[in-house]
Write the structure tokens for this entry.
Amino acid sequence: MSAISIESKKLLKRVADFYRQSLSEDSKAMAYLRDKLFVHRNVVIDDLGLGYSNGSLVDALPDDPALVSKLTSLSILDQRGNEKLSDCLVVPLTDQAGNIINLYARSIEKRHAWCINLSGCGILNCRAFKAFEAIMLAPTVKDLLVLYDQGYQNCAYIYSRKDLEAFDPLAGVHKLKVVTLIKFGSAQRKGSLKGLEPYLHKRRIVLQRLTVPGRSAVAYFQKHSNEAFDELLRHNRRVSRQPTPDKKFNQSPSYSETASGFLYIDGNRKYEIKGIQKKSTQLKVTIKATLETGHNAPFEISTVDMYSYRARVWFAKLCADLFAEPEDLVQIDLHRILEHAEAFRATKKQATIQMSAEDKREALRFLQTPDLMDEILADFESIGVVGEKKQRGQVFILDVDA
């Protein structure tokens, strides 16, 4: 695998950022994500850097032959100067440091997928290797996108074992204990992971294998729920008799509605959500994050736009420090909270108050009092509302009329 220069990594990032902006502006590409790939959440686009090549990159390039030559050498442009990835969904693949070293492209019309680097190098969601005690390896990029959309942010994709050797995502400090290799039905994985088990064994990491019904993640989640998939994972751990990862990955989070929102609790991480405001492009909620350690526990509270990647990252950093947990774990919490907030429907319970016959007679008698306004203004004065008598009467009438 040939090394990729720092200059090339920077250029690939610029290209990926351009494609990312194009995706948000293209209704056809967004519909493809939603209807064909079963990806509905903006969090997938933001976290994994998804983009779309609409063919406008060439027109946006400056008159710079050296730049064109470099883009051609990276297989972004062909020899005639045209975009190779035109009309493709684009997913960046990275090294262990998060630098983009490859682009995965999936044609929207032709249903064909490839990487611009023919060696297939690169990892998708590399941060999962160090953030979690238990991760899943998806068989394809497409499957990972669906799993991530379903809330499984502890899922990664590697093309082959050589990516582990070249980039070694587990170098340095990590907490990984269990890796589950996912396979859907009889589908064959592209790229060889032969030798993965020895690589993990040297690091005292258990490798498990799980075959999931259906030909793909799309086919599975169209028929099954997240709870069913969670049960598959738990059953697989029991059958293989392998050590169970940290309890926070084994306990089901709890959700309960309150008078003004809902509570979301996972382990010792408690989130109280209020003030849910939904608009077409915004989903603002007030979140109070607290450690479940009893009274006077430290907390973080803020109003967050859940559709804003930057806002979620900012609040996740605060909560990661509060909980002393990886930021990516908090991101999973926020993803689940986003789903609950989208589905939340405020129920206003109207309390029915019945007036007694005596109260009703007294109210009618008061309304027929000849000096009704004088009594009302006197009540105003008794509670400290003073000033011009005429203006006070006008304020009362306006309030009652409203």
Summary: Confidence is low (pLDDT under 50) at residues 241-250.
